[in-house]
Amino acid sequence: LSTLVFAEIYNFPNNFIWGAASASYQIEGAWNVDGKIPSIWDTASHKNNSSIRDGSTGDDAGMSYYYYEKDIQALKDIGFEVYRFSIAWTRILTKANQVNQKGIDYYNKVIDGLLDVGIQPLVTMYHWDLPQYLQDLGGWTNPAIVKYFEVYADTLFASFGDRVEEWITFNEPKTFCNGGYGEGWDAPEIKTAHANVYHLYKNKYFTKQQGKVGICLDTTFSFPANENVTDELVDKAMHFSLGRYANPIYSADGDYPSVMREAIDQRVKMKGEDALNYYTSNLIKPSLNPADSDSEIDSSFDPSWKRSASSWLVSVPEGLYHLLLWIKDHYNNPLVYITENGWSDLPMTTEDDGRVEYLREHLATMSRAITDGCRVEAYTVWSLTDNFEWMKGYTERFGIYAINFTDPERPRIPKKSVDLMKQVVRDNFVEV
Ligand code: GBH
């Protein structure tokens, strides 16, 4: 008997850019050497009874601080042309905001090592490892952080901008704002937000206590300076001052003031590429308990969707196709880099058939989206190696290379998906 294999071929443009992605705290280790200062993830993972599933830390992780050449070799073996990695703010600047030369030296070695073998660096400035001393000042809730981040970014541009051509400011602001400061399931594990408290009161206490929960906003009133100043301008000034906070909470449309949005839109017309992380999708319907969420939307998984080792991650390749078309239609077809896409399994498998299938199917839908006019130019798989998966520690593995975290040499061991990626990079097509 012979086996019949039905394979469909999905092509990619000749100049398509392939690569892999990682993030500093998840791979580097060396958490307290060469002048590095503590980050909020050092704090979260060193706490007694930390919330990290296996009680682990990123103190050593894949030891990329020492073994970055193994990462570069692993990229090169596949033929990748781009490496997305992040820089640890905590290595670059001291508490006194002085440049830490040893930190600069480390990233110089990584960047030069990549360029030597023809791999372009794509650098994320912030992938969640905020200096702890800045968190002690309120972190992302303190407006002063804007200036601190600017000083840090300035140092990066000045130190590496001669060789790094592509930068990403923030990895997943929705995740670190909501996870870190809204619902508290990521470092610094703070649960705040006016809306949460308001809804808590409304749902749990209002019937009995009949009180009110408000928010205290501050504003001046803006008077016209002369008779040429229009009422519209007064209104605009008020919206910049008060409306930016009040409108989302109190206005009929619940949005930021349109006058403010239009003014800002004019100034920051989206330029460059949209860096997009896509993993999974969901089914949505109007909420049965509207009080539970601001969106009044309930989401769930289709039971037919394949599950990974991560509870939130199911395989929905069609979702990537529809997302790319949605972006094309809503944002005037910008250039898009897929900066993360990947699959988790349990330690320690190199027979990662689930990942191979996930990647094949997602690359195929990406190819279809490109055929249908989307301007996707690059793809970096998450992740180059197994690494510290945040609150899940080392219990969920995303690498296309496996790492045994008890082996002092931390060899990068190719999984089956490395063979897949080699073939895709070589042929510029994927078979499904
Ligand atoms: C990415 O986030 C990150 O950029 C990367 O660092 C990470 O390693 C990778 O995903 C894999 O997780 O645990 O149910 O509360 C992906 C988006 C948003 C997915 C937060 C996990 C937490 C869900 N992430 N989410 S839950």
Automatic annotation (TrEMBL):
InterPro entries: GH, GH_1_N_CS, Glyco_hydro_1
Pfam families: Glyco_hydro_1
Biological process annotations from GO: carbohydrate metabolic process
Classification via PANTHER family: GLYCOSYL HYDROLASE, LP05116P
Stretches of the chain forming a coiled coil according to its record: none
Alphabetical UniProt keywords: Glycosidase, Hydrolase, Signal
Name by which UniProt lists this protein: Glycoside hydrolase
Family: Belongs to the glycosyl hydrolase 1 family.
Gene Ontology molecular function, alphabetical: beta-glucosidase activity
Superkingdom of origin organism: Eukaryota
Organism: Polypedilum vanderplanki (Sleeping chironomid midge)
